[in-house]
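Could you show me just one protein sequence together with its fold in token form as a worked example?
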Amino acid sequence: MEEERDKGKMFEEGFKEWFKDNVGEEWSKDMKCKKSNRNKMYKTGAGTGAGVYCLGFIGALVYYIGVSTSFWVGVLGILKSIVWPAFVVHGILKFLGL
């Protein structure tokens, strides 16, 4: 047990020397939590599109199922709710006359 502690201390001292030689600073326990700029994660807005699509899908699903008059019209409503962005783009392009 005593031998393992000595090995641990020797490793820690060796690491501190290596750190000082390669980084140029003294090692401290506070530095363990310090993060460099290269490890930062940057968030983009990519996840927002999926959230909007899901909310739109649920809204379209509720609408199309609510106005369905038969089983097959309800099935068609489910399929329409999956591709609702195509209907939105078509409506915008039709409105703009393009």
In short: The first helix runs from residue 2 to 23. Residues 2-32 form one domain.
